Amino acid sequence: MLQEQRKITNRFFAAAAVLAALAGACACPVFAEEEKVSREIFAMDTVMTLTAYGEHAGEGIDAAVDEITRLDALLSTEKKDSEVARINEGVIGDESLSRDTAKLLAESLYLYGETDGAFDITVYPLMQLWGFTDGNYRVPTEEELAETMQVVGADDISYDEGTGKAAFGKEGMEIDFGGIAKGYTSGRIMEIFKENGVESGLVSLGGNVQTLGRKPDGRNFKIGIQNPDKDSSFLAVIEAADEAVITSGGYERYFEEDGVKYHHILDPKTGCPARSGLLSVSIVSPDGLLADGLSTALFVMGEEDAVSFWKGHSDSFEMILYTEDGRLLATGGLKDRLTSDYEIEWI
Ligand code: ADP
Ligand code: MG
Questions:
Q1: What angle do CA 242, 40, 200 make, to 5 degrees?
Q2: What's the mean pLDDT in 168-193?
Q3: Does domain 80-168 have CATH number 3.30.70.260?
Q4: Is the CB of 265 under 6 A from ligand 1?
Q5: Residue 108 CA, closest ligand 1 atom number
Q6: 267: Cα within 13 Å, side-chain hemisphere
Q7: Distance from the CA of 318 to the center of ligand 2, in angstroms?
């Protein structure tokens, strides 16, 4: 039997995470109540909550919503006239890519190389095969998998940074920025906030949070990380300032067939949902795009490879891993600002 179990509770949880992040802000003596503006919108298939503080909060939020709408129209794989859909249909021809798409493509190819192929935007034909793109979920046959795998592999994308032109080496290749689009967007929102004179704020895109500055009372924002096992409590709470806290997990979007759960983060080496022994990976970094890409990639890699990857890149991010056997691991840079009811194994 086929059954969809996309967890609506995530949305409430996302809102709860932001509420936790904001707790205490209202008692602040520095700003009046009207100097905090919050708005909730639905875009990129996600409930997004934006909050800004200070006298320019309203302008900042308006501009951020415009930016989200613009990026959604550009990057959506589903919207027929989006730039990504046009790339996938091969109609982009000899045109140069827009600035945003060029940046996302260059960063995706960089991540593909750095993560030894764990992050690969060419998984889109596999996402379609498994039915994650239209909800017609199914477990493909070996033959179907083998055939689709032939067009998977970002080393067959050529991209010339000078001209901004991209080309696929194989017919049938298609890309999807789903693994980094939200992190890129939250990073852009921080820039838009700043351009509009906002110095303090945060955004939650489906539970992925990025913060600008500190709360108006000078304290760090507190971000709750969802517990994959329980909706009722956080896995951990982290203090953040000028940082993204982005989580990937197999519990977010999945279907079940014959008692087996199949989730939406695919291992590009097998073409199947990654089974790496991890339930969730959270990345903390000032760079939203990097945090999003790495949360997906390190989830695919599993504990051992994720830990050695962090050791080689410990200046650019911190991470929290939650394993299938119930262990919570975190990197040393979070020592004074991560709390949890679980015992934390420090890396
Ligand atoms: P979410 O978007 O649900 O928060 P992720 O950031 O982990 O979670 O992104 C998952 C999305 O990334 C999938 O829906 C798919 O579009 C894409 N994706 C799946 N597997 C990979 C992968 N190995 N590399 C890059 N992108 C992937
Ligand atoms: Mg991601």
A1: 25
A2: 97
A3: no
A4: yes
A5: 25
A6: 14
A7: 15
In which residue are the tokens 């901004």 written? 164
| pLDDT > 90 fraction of the chain, expressed in percent and rounded | 84
Which ligand sits closest to the CA of 283? 2
Structure tokens at 254: 């999945």
pLDDT at 31 over 80: no
* Residue 119 in contact with ligand 1 by CB distance below 6 A: yes
Atom of ligand 1 nearest to the CA of 132: 14
pLDDT in tens, 321-332: 999 999 999 999
Q: Give per-residue pLDDT as tens, 130-163.
A: 999 999 999 999 999 999 999 999 999 999 989 9
Distance CA 155, CA 138 (A): 28
Q: Are strands 46-53 and 36-43 parallel, antiparallel or unpaired?
A: antiparallel
Contact (Cβ atoms closer than 8 angstroms) between residue 328 and residue 236: yes
Give the Cα separation of 238 and 199 in Å (integer).
Answer: 20
> What's the pLDDT at 11?
39
- 273-298 per-position pLDDT tens digit: 999 999 999 999 999 999 999 999 99
**Starting at the edge strand that comes first in sequence, how are the strands of the sheet with 234-240 ordered?**
221-226, 234-240, 338-339
Q: Are 121 and 154 in contact (CB under 8 A)?
A: yes
pLDDT, tens digit (0-9, with 9 covering 90-100), for 51-63: 999 999 999 999 9
Contact criterion met (CB below 8 Å) for 84 and 176: yes
**Dihedral of alpha carbons 186, 50, 26, 11, sign:** negative
- Dump pLDDT digits (tens) for 236-276: 999 999 999 999 999 889 999 999 999 999 999 999 999 99
Strands 278-285, 244-249: pairing is antiparallel
Task: Give the number of the atom of ligand 1 that is nearest the alpha carbon of residue 183.
Answer: 6
Closest residue by Cα to atom 8, ligand 1, is 248
Q: Give CA–CA dist 111/221, Å, rounded.
A: 28
Other beta carbons less than 10 A from residue 288's beta carbon: 28
Q: State residue 200's pLDDT score.
A: 98
Per-residue tokens: 266: 């695919």
Q: What are the residue ranges spanned by the domains of the chain?
A: 80-168
> What's the pLDDT score for residue 93?
67
- β-strand pairing of 46-53 with 200-205: antiparallel
